Amino acid sequence: MESSRRLCKYKVEREVLDEQRLEEVTQRKTHSDTHRSLTESFKDSLRCTVPKLKRSVMNSLPVLYWLPKYSIWDYGMPDLISGISVGIMHLPQGMAYALLASLPPVFGLYSSLYPTLIYFFFGTSRHISIGTFTVLSIMVGSVTERLAPDVAFLRMNGTNITTEVDIIARDSYRVQVAAATTVLGGLIQVILGLVKFGFVGTYLSEPLVRAYTTAAAAHAVVAQLKYIFGVSPTRFTGPLSLVYTLKDVCSLLPQTHLPTLVVSAVSMVLLIAAKELNSFLSPKLPVPVPMELITIVAGTLISNYAYLNINYTVSVVGEIPSGLSPPSVPDFSIFGEVMGDAFALAIVGYAISISLGKTFALKHGYKVDSNQELVALGLSNAVGGFFQCYSVCSSMSRSLIQETTGGKTQMAGVASALIVLVTILKLGPLFQELPKAVLAVIVFVNLKGMFKQYSDIATLWRRSKIDLVVWLVTWVSTLLLNLDLGLAASITFALLTVIFRTQLPTYSVLGNVPGTELYLDIEKHREVREIPGVTIFRSSATVYFANAELYLEALKEKSGLDISKMIIYKRRQEAKQKRRERRAERRAKRQEEPGWRDTCIDGNVTDKEDQGWTERENGTVFVIPTSPGAPEGQGRWEYLKGGDPECTSLGHDLERISLGSLGKWTWDIHSIILDLSTANFIDTVAIKTIKNIFQDFSEIDVDIYMAGCQACVVEQLEIGDFFSESITKRHLFASVHDAVLYCLDHRWKNHRTSTRRNISTCTCKLIQILVKL
């Protein structure tokens, strides 16, 4: 097969196409052809109002599209099994992640219920599980503890005249802060989705997201240390809060509550061992064993019957109200204080959800609408905020369970929500004696996957140093600047890397692959040949205001032509030529004066170089170079002995006369082709720069051409008044090969015309000299 591919060839014969000829051949459409008038658009909208309205409703409510086609026999049982499995995971994760958000555990269960039901109606992904997530929980926790710190809720203890924290008032206000932040973040997501801003998630590259979640895992670990060791460190906010918190926890280690540490250690060992066993047996099990739920149940039973809270003062979850709380309007006065945090939550939550959604959609062959996903996630958060939920997004672990256990549609989410609902209504009070240390251990163990992302450093070191720098900067900034400022710094740095890469692209001179129309970098390919007299210049990035000046400097460097110096040199040569012509005229006048003696007979000619003569033996010789710019004295010559001309081989030899033989200046490069195939836009600064290139190089008689321009670039050149009488569309070519063929053909024709003109001039001079001799 490989040999047949090597033998495959093709041959195309066509005319050389410049932009003007290409438009004639292809019949390029005008602006009126591609853009309808307002009247026509209004008529079409009226004519298609009903179908468009129906399609718009279907797009806004995807459930109306897939639910009527839902087959209970095909999808009912897989969705039910998957939903139960995911619902069981919701319970421990919801309560554990609520601690990360510094909220009572029941609000983690609320966040696993309402948003899931909202997403059922508006979401387009069939496999992601909406609910609490580690990173968002930490981000919410940083907001709640910043606006509702413990020191703001101290009260006097009447018995021993000491201060203590009013936990009920503190938690109540933290719930208000979390709900307001969630509603605002949801509204931001909805607005972005309605204005088709779903592509915003693309600015969060994979290395950035993975580094951000890895750093967030470090924040989660530090936040759980107080529950694992049973200490009460001071809560810090703002930049370097992680460092200060970790330092304070280390200073409190001598005060570790030993019963709490024992509970944490036993729970961690058993949970890790059970999870490893579960992973080993997972290929043989139809559904994974819910080890977190088993750990919670076991921890609750042991705590309840051993009276850990009473006998050993082990901190427990406490009262969990049964039933659903009524909806309430969030405190809008908090919006101003949490605007930045809400925007960060909106972007991070969407980026995580859309990346998971597209992964599963690609695997199972369906499409996920990024804008609709943004709206669905926004409505899940905005509506959930009215029911005291905090920000949610999809979870990798739960989504994998939903997909691997056979989930087919969003009905699996409804089944999981029913499990959470039953727990809230009937089973919630049973977990009141659950130690908080067990929940902290669940969070700690579930972060194992994020800690594995440190292997990205070695992978990126081999694949892309720039992505590695983005990863490291994101990780460091998120650790030191906290989650909100760290995200802003990370996105800014990632965008700067793109700007730097476009501002400092790779510039190359192209050559031809022999026997083909392909042109590659001369410095990187041995068999590529440079076109004589033609320089093909290409930039690996679009030319725009940030790199336009660098583009011009690189062009001068690669072509070897310093325009300013060469213009000065040209002017000097022109002035020198004029002086020679004036001397020749004065000499001719002196020759016409009476008494002037021809010194050429005896071979002593004065100022021979200016006349184009040299000596050979006892006669005079006129030198005709065989090629442009040939060294002086080399070429074909004719004897003029004793004043008798023997012009035996003028003809073809005189056709080789060039500007160099007449003492005029010339360069090795006569044409430069700018390969703009990499450009997808061009701004006014770049247009002005390219105009200047045309004008400057024309001063030294070097022709400039452009090749490979996309249609959008040509339109922008037209709008920017690039074309004129001196720069026409004849200077633009469909490909580099077209431009090269035109340059060679055009230069050859000009060279022949110039040669004939020079031959005529030289012949006249020869005749004048022969007559005088």
Characterize the structure shown:
This protein is α+β, with helices and mostly antiparallel strands. Helices cover 59% and strands 7% of the residues. The chain is built from 30 helices and 14 strands. It has a 6-stranded mixed sheet with strand order 6-5-7-12-13-14, sandwiched between helices. The protein has a 4-stranded antiparallel sheet with strand order 8-9-10-11. A hairpin with a 4-residue loop joins strand 2 and strand 3. Helix 7 runs parallel beside helix 9. It is elongated, with a radius of gyration of 40 Å. 36% of the residues are buried. Mean pLDDT is 81; it is low at 1-5 and 596-666.
Helix content: 55-70%
Rounded to the nearest angstrom, the radius of gyration is 40 Å
Distance between the amino and carboxyl termini: 76 Å
Strand content: 5-15%
Structural class: alpha+beta
The low-confidence parts are 1-5, 596-666
Estimate the global geometry from the Cα principal axes: elongated
So what's the oligomer here? single chain
Total count of helical runs of at least 4 residues:
30
Number of β-strand runs: 14
Largest sheet: 6 strands, mixed
Mean pLDDT: 81
